[in-house]
Amino acid sequence: MFRGVTQLSLDAKGRIAIPARYRSELMSKCSGHLIVTADPSKCLLIYPQPAWEPIEERLNSLSSFNPKTRSLQRLLIGNASDVEMDSAGRILVAPPLRGFAGLSKEVVLVGQGEKFELWDEGQWNVQIEDALSFSEDDMPPELEGFSL
């Protein structure tokens, strides 16, 4: 289970170092084999390969005749990039994916259970500001009755 926010820096080659606290779990779950793909919210998603495979299968099983479904297939599957953690725990984020998410040198890795989100730090701060402005009137129906 991945959780928490970690501020990282992209190096000159476009690599990030996966935080040490996740490395052993990633090595045991998937031998460091990860999938990086685009997300509609303009961040990147990073999945251990075994967690990604059922998502890709499900997306591929959907009809490509629906234009919205086809667009989502293109975005998620078309941008999926296989990466391997190196001996220093780093992964290379491909230039097209860095461009898609607008990643600058300073980035934020956010644990989201079975996956990570990778955000440009400035865009992450905008997301947090939006979350802080959440009001009860904006409550999605599936969160009614939910309490922390």
For the biggest β-sheet, the strand order reads 1-7-8-4-3-5
What structural class is derived from the secondary structure elements? alpha+beta
Topology order in helix (H) and strand (E) letters: EEHEEHHEEHEEH
Q: How many helices?
A: 5
Largest sheet: 6 strands, antiparallel
Rg estimate, integer Å: 16 Å
Mean pLDDT: 94
Low-confidence stretches: none
Compute the separation of the termini in Å: 19 Å
Shape: globular
Residues in β-strands, percent: 25-35%
Strand count: 8
What share of residues is helical? Answer: 25-40%
Quick synopsis:
The protein is an alpha+beta fold.
Question: What topology emerges from the helices and strands here?
Answer:
Blueprint: E1 2-9, E2 15-17, H1 20-30, E3 33-38, E4 44-48, H2 49-61, H3 67-76, E5 81-84, E6 90-92, H4 95-101, E7 106-113, E8 116-120, H5 121-132
Antiparallel strand pairs: 1-7, 2-6, 3-4, 3-5, 4-8, 7-8
Question: Mind explaining what this structure looks like?
Answer:
With 148 residues, the chain is an alpha+beta fold. Helices cover 36% and strands 28% of the residues. The protein has 5 helices and 8 strands. The strands form 2 sheets. The chain has a 6-stranded antiparallel beta sheet with strand order 1-7-8-4-3-5. Strands 2-6 form a two-stranded antiparallel sheet. The protein is globular. The mean pLDDT is 94.
